[in-house]
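User: Reviewer 2 asked us to show a designed sequence for the structure in our supplementary figure. I'm pasting the structure tokens here. Could you produce the per-position amino acids so we can include them in the response letter?
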């Protein structure tokens, strides 16, 4: 038997894909924040989860992205505090700005990563619109005498 074959999956009638270890990737995302998250990340998790549950389209498979999003938010808050306390630039002894401070770089990185992850998870207005599907309205066709004449098109 080929040892490089992928693990077997069980597909049930409700279209869930169950891995052989019993987990289901399409289960709901967990409600409680993971213990390894920073305190501010856990606080954001508690705020976001009720809203995510209402939307219903994030599942367990999306959990790692949400963990990263919350972590970047916590790091963003830390960088913001450092910026307030120490400024955006490293300065020489004379007070002349030398380089961008690490907290300014961290803040920028966090914003970029949060935007990217938020977009992937549907946290932006545009991404949220992509999650919606609009059904085409049902059109009633009326009987017309022109239907008897075969013009090659539906009238």
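Assistant: Here is a per-position design you can include in the supplement:
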């Amino acid at each position: 038997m080929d040892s490089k074959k992928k693990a077997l999956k069980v597909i049930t009638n409700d279209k869930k894909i169950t891995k052989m270890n019993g987990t289901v990737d399409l289960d709901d995302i967990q409600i409680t924040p993971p213990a390894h998250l920073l305190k501010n990340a856990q606080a954001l998790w508690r705020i976001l989860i009720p809203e995510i549950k209402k939307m219903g389209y994030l599942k367990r498979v999306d959990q790692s992205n949400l963990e990263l999003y919350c972590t970047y938010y916590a790091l963003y808050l830390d960088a913001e505090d450092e910026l307030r306390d120490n400024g955006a630039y490293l300065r020489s002894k004379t007070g002349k700005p030398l380089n961008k401070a690490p907290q300014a770089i961290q803040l920028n990185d966090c914003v970029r990563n949060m935007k990217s992850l938020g977009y992937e998870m549907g946290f932006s207005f545009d991404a949220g619109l992509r999650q919606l599907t609009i059904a085409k309205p049902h059109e009633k066709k009326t009987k017309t005498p022109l239907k008897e004449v075969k013009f090659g098109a539906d009238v």
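For the response letter, you might also mention the following. The first strand starts at residue 9 and ends at 11. Strands lie at 9-11, 17-19, 89-91, 97-100.
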